[in-house]
Amino acid sequence: KAGVTQTPRYLIKTRGQQVTLSCSPISGHRSVSWYQQTPGQGLQFLFEYFSETQRNKGNFPGRFSGRQFSNSRSEMNVSTLELGDSALYLCASSSGLGYNEQFFGPGTRLTVL
Amino acid sequence: GENVEQHPSTLSVQEGDSAVIKCTYSDSASNYFPWYKQELGKGPQLIIDIRSNVGEKKDQRIAVTLNKTAKHFSLHITETQPEDSAVYFCAASRNQAGTALIFGKGTTLSVSS
Questions:
Q1: B49 and A99: CB-CB below 8 Å?
Q2: Residue A31's closest chain B neighbor by CA?
Q3: What is d(CA A45, CA A6) in angstroms, rounded to the nearest whole number?
Q4: pLDDT tens, position by position, for chain B (113 residues)?
Q5: Is the dihedral of CA B31, B32, B35, B36 positive or negative?
């Protein structure tokens, strides 16, 4: 079974730009969650999508948004990038039903200059 | 808001020794507590999890204990090996799918041979 894939793996942007990250979950998984990982704040939950609907949301500003398509693939968008948005963005997929393991992808490393 | 505190931040042991990592959580509605291992350049990987109706769970050299009254849970690794060296994260979730995880800040475990 193929794992969670994230594209691109590395990204460099400048302040004020916007960026879109992509996540393909494990086949059959309907839940996709996004997390931000930084040395200072650690792993922080951004949001979760289940069957194309946002089911849970963390405490991030509205500049961070996401969506999920009918094939469960998900995208995350960050607008008006700030230096502090530099981070590893991780995507995790699970069946979304009951207490099922979340499988993490390798992440997208975003650097904002 | 919801918070998970994790100690220690770094832990160095000799091969064959035991390692213990402790976490406390603030949200009394939390009901699912996974532990993740993250190696360099990779996403976190689930190593063991426990639900709120269970006090202890074991899987070979790894065990987790949960004290709901005190809002504490701990990871125990016995007979440590050099390949156990990694960053370990505890997490807590209050929803029935075990998503929207709140993570601790992580423990860097070093096992020397």
A1: yes
A2: B99
A3: 17
A4: 789 999 999 999 999 999 999 999 999 999 999 999 999 999 999 999 999 888 999 999 999 999 999 999 999 999 999 999 999 999 999 988 889 999 999 999 999 99
A5: negative
Res A99 pLDDT > 90: no
Q: Alpha-carbon Rg of chain A, whole angstroms?
A: 13
CA angle A89, A91, A97 (to 5 degrees): 150
Cα maximum dimension of chain B: 41
B26 close contact with A: CB closer than 8 A:
no
Question: Mean pLDDT over all residues of chain A?
Answer: 95
What is the rounded CA–CA span in Å between residue A93 and residue A103?
Answer: 5
Assess B88–A contact: CB distance below 8 Å, yes or no: no
Question: DSSP E strands: which ranges in chain B?
Answer: 4-7, 10-14, 19-25, 32-38, 45-51, 56-59, 62-67, 72-77, 86-92, 102-103, 107-112
| Shortest CA distance from B87: residue in chain A | A42
Which residue in the block uniquely carries the two structure tokens 């109706």? B53
A107 to chain B: closest CA residue: B43
Q: Are B90 and B23 in contact (CB under 8 A)?
A: yes
Distance CA A72, CA A93 (A): 9
Kindly list the residues from chain B whose CB atom is less than 8 angstroms away from the CB atom of residue A107. Answer: 43
Name residue B60's beta-bridge partners. none
Chain A interface includes B14 (CB < 8 A):
no
